[in-house]
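Structure Section — protein described below
Tokens — whole-number codes for backbone shape
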Amino acid sequence: MIMSGKAVLENVRRYRAIASLYRQTAAFRPLQSHSLLGQAERWEQLAIFELESYFSMGSRPKLVQERWDGMAVAA
């Protein structure tokens, strides 16, 4: 299944919105800020990965699934 450019951009927008929420939460929770900022960085990396995968047109579905699996383990 190949995703359209619109779907990819929507995913990127969502991932970055989630990252933004983690950063905002970190601002109000200094004791957890290190962990929260780490989560924000993971979501930003997923957004970048989504764009890179789309434009490289590699084996995107498998790579995205592996990335999600890796994020689940890190959480």
Notes: The radius of gyration is 14 Å. Residues 5-74 form one domain. The chain has three helices and no strands. The chain has a mean pLDDT of 85.
